[in-house]
């Protein structure tokens, strides 16, 4: 009888490339008794695997882990989440059962923060807008037309001292710009120790050249960047969101972008993919990406050059 832990892989098909999915299956099979790879928990195969599983491996596309799933898995002791936050997928019953949970949230913070840094620099340089205009005009653009372009002396407002928010502050240290931070859970001294200056959210939004959002999606944070705060942002400023779409009043943001005096760089929206006819897709002041900030080469292709 095998003494290896009994594992179900429930990261969801399509979460990675076929090569990465095969790589994950091989790795699990080499260290455990891989019972099944499932996309849902209500199939006959999934229920049979849950009945004896010790470990559940989850990811971005895993179905919600609720009381019904846990009831079907009486031996479950560990959940290994290979994505970031578990807030949206795990119900309180997971913690009440005493199941040990690990997450890749620290590892995921690195590429998201790097993506955010690139977005900040691109926003201050107005790369997306200038590139679009250059593509349309197909002639040199006089620098006098561009106005102030660059990061020197600009203010960057960071909303949320999450792992990603803290990493963003750290990555911004070498640049000649001012970093201000809003996080109601930290004191001014705590924020200063991170390398930023504490600032109220209202002032941060009203005075920053770039606002980058790193707050979690919670009942208390939904709509945190409200219509009033969006309206108060300076003309020509930029709003970056790599956290969750519902933290921002998306309708208010869209209206402000369509007015033509605010830039938006969004890796997350509500819903995850905007309807095909949404005006932000084509607007020159909007830059949309399909939730790729946390994606790494390892997830897309596990092959390693010798």
Keywords:
single chain; 306 residues; alpha/beta; seven-stranded parallel sheet; five-stranded parallel sheet; 35% helix; 17% strand
Description:
This protein is of the alpha/beta class and 306 residues long. It is built from twelve helices and twelve strands. Strands 8-7-6-9-10-11-12 form a seven-stranded parallel beta sheet, sandwiched between helices. Strands 2-1-3-4-5 form a five-stranded parallel beta sheet, sandwiched between helices.
Secondary structure layout plus pairing:
Elements: E1 6-10, H1 18-31, E2 33-37, H2 44-50, E3 55-58, H3 67-71, E4 78-81, H4 92-96, E5 100-103, H5 105-125, H6 127-137, E6 155-159, H7 163-172, E7 178-182, H8 188-194, E8 197-198, H9 201-207, E9 210-213, H10 227-232, E10 237-241, H11 250-259, E11 262-266, E12 286-288, H12 297-300
Helix pairs in contact: 5-7
Q: What would the principal axes of the Cα set say about the shape?
A: elongated
Order of H and E elements: EHEHEHEHEHHEHEHEHEHEHEEH
Q: Whole-number average pLDDT?
A: 92
**Strand residue content:** 15-25%
How many strand elements? Answer: 12
Low-confidence stretches: none
TL;DR?
35% of the residues lie in helices and 17% in strands. The protein is α/β, with parallel strands linked by helices and 306 residues long. The protein is elongated, with a radius of gyration of 22 Å.
